[in-house]
Every structure is written in C-alpha cells, then in structure tokens.
Amino acid sequence: NAGVTQTPKFQVLKTGQSMTLQCAQDMNHNSMYWYRQDPGMGLRLIYYSASEGTTDKGEVPNGYNVSRLNKREFSLRLESAAPSQTSVYFCATSRGRFNEAFFGQGTRLTVV
Amino acid sequence: AQTVTQSQPEMSVQEAETVTLSCTYDTSESDYYLFWYKQPPSRQMILVIRQEAYKQQNATENRFSVNFQKAAKSFSLKISDSQLGDAAMYFCAYRSADAGNMLTFGGGTRLMVKP
C-alpha cells in the first residue's frame, strides 16, 4: 500500500545542473500532477497528465519538462536548474477530474 | 483563472476549543469542488474534507465541518474539540468540474494548538 512514491526525498543541485524527479503510483489512477510548494504561496501546478499519453502545462511550467512514461509513472525534469527552482515538489494522483488528489511525500530541492 | 484566498496566515486555538479557518475563492463557474487539506510537519498532504458545489448540505467528517456559502464564494473549515495533533498547515483547494484537472490551492493557514 505504497500509494504515491517520489524519489529522491532531498536533493541539492548546482546552478545549471539537470535532474529528474521520479513519481510512481500503485493506485491505478488516470490523472497525475506535479506541484511546487513555496512559503506563503500554497501549491502551484507545474504540469499535469489527465491520462497516459497526454500532458498539459499548469500554472508555472517554465523551466520544466515532464514525461508520462506509462499509467504508473510521471517524471519531472529540470534541464538547467536555477536558484528560483528551490522548492518542495509534490507529485499527486487522482482517479478522475471529480476526485480528490493523493500526494506523495514531497522532494525538497535546493539549487545553489 | 480561479483564485483561492486564505486571509489568515496563522491561527491559534486552545486545546478542546473550536476554531474556524477562512477560505474564499473567485470563479465564474457553477459546478466545482472544494477541498481542505492538512499538512503536518511530516510534509504529507492529507485530505480533511471535500464539498461538491451542487450540494447545499455542508460536509462533515467527525470533528471537521465546513460552512459553504456558494453565493458569497466562501468555504470555511471548523475544527471542534481541537487536539494537539491538529496543529498543521491547512490548505483550501478548488477544482473546476469543467476546466481540465487543475486543483488550485490557497496560500495556507498555519494552525497552532495550545495545551
């Protein structure tokens, strides 16, 4: 009963480095999301995938790319990390558009 | 685009007392869903309660209840008999029934519970 699993949990990057955040779910949900959480701003949507094979931009997509590898996995890539991307990143899933989201435990990313 | 506003950055309550967290939202849609999430220091996001806009009856989950005022676009969370374990960040969230799958969050309210 893992639910939504994110890796890694913590990461420090140097400016300009790249990395991929991984997310996997065993809930058989169609929709998956990537959010970032910054102090005082709640969670903001970066990208989402309504179903396998589709992805769409959210509120703050610049500097990120995503891949919906299959129904279970949805990855977020930072091609050239910037200090402004220092944040906590959450992956989430939901069964459909009318359902609540279930979240992973987050990845704390620091870009120096 | 929809916006969600939580006007109280911090709230405190005495253990066993009742506290109400405020949330307002801006939308032109008539069909949508509202949620309250709790985020304890562990960082995990936990669903507290949900409300469908087409339902007039306010949702209730044990000690948690909402006051949903659709015309006023207000969605407050009431926590009764507050417990130390209720201390956390609370986020209000909005999901449109039409515009894709976006879940829009407010900025959060930090709730402190005093023993």
Which whole number gives the mean pLDDT of chain A?
93
Topology pattern of chain A, helix = H, strand = E: EEEEEEEEEEE
CA-CA gap between termini of chain B: 41 Å
Q: Report helical residue fraction of chain A.
A: under 10%
Cα shape of chain A: globular
Low-confidence stretches of chain A: none
Quaternary assembly: heterodimer
Rg over alpha carbons of chain B: 14 Å
The level of helicity of chain B is under 10%
Most residues in contact, chain pair and counts: A-B, 26 and 24 residues
Strand fraction of chain B equals over 45%
Keywords:
heterodimer, A: 112 residues, mainly beta, seven-stranded mixed beta sheet, 11 strands, 0% helix, B: 115 residues, six-stranded mixed beta sheet, four-stranded antiparallel beta sheet, 53% strand
Notes on the protein architecture:
The complex is a heterodimer of chains A (112) and B (115). With 112 residues, chain A is an all-beta fold. Chain A has strands spanning 4-7, 10-13, 19-25, 31-37, 43-49, 56-57, 64-68, 74-78, 87-94, 102-103, 107-111. In chain A, a hairpin with a 5-residue loop joins strand 4 and strand 5. The radius of gyration of chain A is 13 Å and the shape is globular. Chain B has 115 residues and is an all-beta fold. In chain B, strands 2, 5, 6, 10, 11 and 12 form a six-stranded mixed β-sheet that branches. In chain B, strands 3-9-8-7 form a four-stranded antiparallel β-sheet, with no helix packed on it.
What is shown here, in short?
The complex is a heterodimer of chains A (about 110) and B (about 120). Chain A is built from no helices and eleven strands.
Tell me the layout of helices and strands.
The complex is a heterodimer of chains A (112) and B (115).
Chain A (H helix, E strand, L loop, with lengths): L3 E4 L2 E4 L5 E7 L5 E7 L5 E7 L6 E2 L6 E5 L5 E5 L8 E8 L7 E2 L3 E5 L1
Parallel strand pairs in A: 2-11
Antiparallel strand pairs in A: 1-3, 3-8, 4-5, 4-9, 5-6, 7-8, 9-10, 9-11
Chain B lengths: L2 E3 L4 E5 L4 E3 L2 E3 L5 E8 L6 E7 L7 E2 L2 E6 L4 E6 L8 E9 L6 E3 L3 E6 L1
Parallel strand pairs in B: 2-12
Antiparallel strand pairs in B: 1-4, 3-9, 5-6, 5-10, 7-8, 8-9, 10-11, 10-12
